[in-house]
Amino acid sequence: MLHGAGIDVADVARIARLVERRGPAFTTRWFAAAEIAQCERAAVTTAAFAGVYAAKEAVWKALAIRAWPGPVPWRWICVTESAPGRWSVRLGGPVADAAQAAGVGEVRVHIAQGGAVATAVALATRAVSGAPPA
Known about the structure:
The chain is globular. The longest helix is centred in the middle third of the chain and has 19 residues, at 45-63. Helices cover 41% and strands 33% of the residues. The chain has one domain: CATH 3.90.470.20. Helix 3 runs antiparallel to helix 4. By secondary structure, it is α+β, with helices and mostly antiparallel strands. The strands form 2 sheets. The protein has a 3-stranded antiparallel beta sheet. A two-stranded antiparallel sheet has the order 2-3.
C-alpha cells in the first residue's frame, strides 16, 4: 500500500556551483560518505550529485513526515546506485526512526539525468507488520 510519493528536479548548474564554491562544506552536509564516493567516481560528477540531491528531496517528500524539529538531517537519507540504473535507499538515525513511526516499510527511487536537470521520483510503501523500514 502506498504511503507517499515525492518528486524533485535539481538544476545541475546550481549544484555544480555549490560543489565548486563550497566543496566539502556542501557535500558533507548534504551527502553520506557512500554517496560522495559514488558521485566522485561518476563520469559527470556534478550531474551525479544533482541526481542524488533530487532523489534525497523526493524521498523526504515521499516519507511525508509532517512534524520535524529543525533542519532535515540529509545524510541520514542515503541514495546509491546498486546496479546500473537501479537505486537503493537506506534510511538511518532519526529519519529511519520517524519513517518507522509513520509506518513506512520500503522506499524506492528512480533518477533521470539529462542535460540541465536531474529528476527523481520516490515512492514509500506501508510496512508489512513487524518488518523494519528499508
